User: Fold this.
Amino acid sequence: MAIAAQKYHPVKVSYAHPTLIGIVASAVLTALVIVGSRNLEHFDSALFGYTIASVVAFGAIAFRYAIWLQRPATRTYFRRGLQLFFQRKKFAANAGNAATTAATNLVAQRFIFKRGTMRWLMHFLIMWGCIIAAAITFPLVFGWVHFELEGDLGYRAYLFGFPLSVMQGRDVFAWIVFHGLDFSAVMVIAGCAIAIHRRLKDRGAIALQSFLLDFTPHLLLIAISVSGLMLTASSLWFAGYMYSFVALVHQATVIMTLFFLPFGKLFHIVQRPASIGVELYQKRSQEMPQAVCPRCRTEFAGQMWIDDLKKVVGDLGFDYRMENGNTLQDYCPRCKRIVRGLSYANLPQAQEKVFVGGRADEK
Ligand code: HEM
Ligand code: HEM
Assistant:
């Protein structure tokens, strides 16, 4: 049994669509900044640099995401994930499955826990430190949240210009809110320290890592956090000494990181949540009509999944058609290995044919 020759055509990437998506994303964020800050009434012009960088980085992330979605496997999983999620009859069950995946994989990150407690702690600290910092800084920078002093009462927070509750200056809650960035900075520094320590000691990591991919993100995050803590120290204990210089350093490191987001390792922040769709597809395909292995007659995977796999393999330029009319993907994993083995076993004869009778494809 022979498998036809395999060839690989790199998938052609189209840039026109992603560029448009990137421009639209930047335009939408710009509009939201204008509307959310009540026509820039609550927008602090000193934070213009941060805003421009965020708008550009947001467009670049959307651009890169759109390019990533052009990969045959990603595109198939993404489309199927959405299609299965919005199935009318199973919407409640799908929402439940998606919520479970989000809770275990995105929030609790149980799959990293399986790799080691320290690795889980490392990621937990970095991720939640960054999420807390982003949740505080972006709304403030965009003018979506602002505070106003109300006499002796304390500060009143406003969200999109609508008043929220007043925070007493001496409240424990107010103290935690005002120092939220300091807590997040300590979390990020601790998480990055654990990550760098592992990367300097673990032989497996040393063999695979590169400076740009595996150390730059930590160094940038540490630079942001240390400069942020220096801002707090400057205003609390040094009467604002060097404040504007450190604020500039903080801004520069934040902007560098924002621009690094779409092109480096940190892009996984937006890539990873797509795993919700993949898990949903795997779960639903178990309930669909199953594919039967033509060799051992066992049911081994959802037929839809196998059909999608064949299409993706074809889109990538691989040809796994066999002389008996089947495709390698039609077989269960065990029989696939056997069929492959048999095919390799027949190779010497095929080569002999090449040497004796000339190239098979010339005939
Ligand atoms: C604000 C959000 C996030 C930030 C700042 C972040 C940051 C990082 C950083 C800096 C690393 C490199 C750690 C190392 O040196 O090994 C990393 C690794 C990783 N991240 Fe994230 N991440 C975020 C969100 C997520 C999410 C949502 C997921 C998946 C659900 C995820 C999955 C992973 C995995 C699997 C690794 C490899 C961990 C390991 O080595 O065991 N991350 N992340
Ligand atoms: C890892 C993420 C980040 C951490 C740990 C962090 C930490 C900090 C800290 C501790 C401060 C000092 C707060 C104070 O004085 O009480 C600060 C200030 C500030 N941060 Fe960040 N930050 C982060 C990301 C960002 C981002 C993404 C932005 C903008 C989009 C940003 C914008 C600012 C601004 C505008 C200030 C006030 C500085 C000034 O007075 O000019 N930060 N940050």
Q: What stands out?
A: The beta strands are 145-150, 154-159, 162-167, 290-292, 299-302. Confidence is low (pLDDT under 50) at residues 354-363.
